Amino acid sequence: MSIPFNRNFDAPYGRLIDVAPRIRRLLADNPGPFTFKGTSVAVVGRGNVAVIDPGPDDPAHQEALRQALEGETVTHILVTHTHRDHSPAARVLKAWTGAPTYGFGPHGAGKAEEGIVVEEGGDSDFVPDIRVRDGDVIAGDGFTLECVYTPGHTSNHMCYALREEKALFCGDHVMGWSTTVVAPPDGDMGDYLASLRKLLARDDSVYWPAHGGPIRDPKSFVGSYLAHRLEREAQIVAALRDGVTSIPEMVERVYVGLDPWLRPAAGLSVLAHLQLLLKQGRVGADGGVGFAGRYRLV
Asked: Thinking of the domain 242-297, which architecture would CATH place it in?
């Protein structure tokens, strides 16, 4: 399934620029294979503002953010999820402004409710002052943000919908430049597919991802995202049918021509699909569920 990616994204680092009537954006200088050109910090409102995903623990970025917000009053600090390119700067922004932080919960919060301990590597220091749930509304000076819970990329992933502009700040749940990594145990393919279907039922006019440019035709784009994941699942099932039993072999077969740097992420994505198939009773595993396991169709 072809996804209409748009990789034409060019923005200055460290400068707050207008992108919509109530939205400004500051790009952190942290480009990479998973962050594209960097993390986009969103500033919502004028004068009294909300900041969404303050960004990484980088002093130069944090100073640029502080200077960009001079003359403004930060009233809300919102975090979509606790990967290290999104939430660490919330700590210093709160120290400067006294504004409360909002989020679903600390790293792994969605899985902790199921008794699952997630991997290290997230921002384990972030604990929101105010824990929000699906449908909660955060009202500010001239803006209204609705919380839209979208687990899958992480178990604590929360999107925020700006009602005044029918715009969705979608973090890493949907990105216009690439597919999203779903890495167990915190990432969950079943949750991710359900969250995509949840967005399909909404009527947002534009998405503002944390990486790359806006998505102007979100319903069609999410439809292609969902179709792509279901196609990957079908490819994995076909590989199992042909006697391919290990995750590395599935990666070689399914992700033809993949950059070697991205193979570990592809392996985690295959594992996420297999875990969903196991849960559905369509696949069995010998030797444990993980990269050492051997998988078969049931």
From this structure: Orthogonal Bundle (1.10)
- Sign of the torsion angle spanned by Cα atoms 85, 109, 103, 215: positive
Sign, CA dihedral 175-164-92-79, equals negative
Helices 218-241 and 189-200 pack at an angle, to 10 degrees, of 150
In this prediction, residues 146-156 reach a mean pLDDT of 98
* Residue 57 Cα distances to 53, 124, 128, 163, angstroms: 12, 13, 17, 30
Listed in order, the ranges of the chain carrying CATH 1.10.10 are 242-297
Cβ density class 86-123: b for 16+ within 10 Å, e for less: bbbbbbbbbeebebebbbbbbbbbbbbeeeeebeeebb
pLDDT of residue 135: 98
In this structure, are strands 206-209 and 167-171 parallel, antiparallel, or unpaired? parallel
Tell me yes or no: is domain 16-225 CATH 3.60.15.10.
Answer: yes
Question: 261: pLDDT confidence band, cut at 50, 70 and 90?
Answer: confident
